[in-house]
Amino acid sequence: MMYGYGTWGVWGWVAMGIVMLLFWGGVAALIVVLVRGARGGWGGGGYYPPAGPSPDDPERILGQRFARGEIDEAEYKARLEALRRRP
Prior knowledge:
Elements: H1 10-39, H2 58-68, H3 73-85
């Protein structure tokens, strides 16, 4: 007896439901990827670096060296002036 399930029976309907979920899940994932890519959400073309000095900022490194006592105040001021004069 077929009970109205067609030639594949219940497992055909289960397989069709799984394929339908995978299809619509893929469509939704594609939409999310396209929207985030257009807004630059994943570091794509719209990536902006964080505000403030970078960890490799020369003045910051110079200040850290002065704070650690590696250079004295005269050398700190001379190097800071030289950094600020550069083009």
